[in-house]
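Researcher: Next sequence.
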Amino acid sequence: MVKDLTEKADVIEVLRGLSDGKEKRFSELLLLGIPRANLARRLKELESGGFIARRVEPSRPPQTFYKITDKGMELYKSLLKEKAVIVEEFIKHYPQEAKEILRRYLKLEDKK
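Model: Next structure:
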């Protein structure tokens, strides 16, 4: 399950979007730039794996909220570390200033 998920490029973006620990609505997660159908699919996959929790507020219309779980946060941090290792290997011969720019651009810094 984890291997299947980690091979999908937008999984890390969904987890990043939830990594602040706050509940988010589907419409808020769309701001990540992931196409609607892909986002819906990833959220279902992440929920079924226990990486995110889904809560439905019984209102009219119903509101659905998503939040990262501890298991999801562990996966996110692991993926972030793997991404950083790959990028560091790729840019090891770049000048220091270029490395810093690339790290910021690729969002390798962990906000936590």
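Model: The chain has one domain: 2-105. The mean pLDDT is 87.
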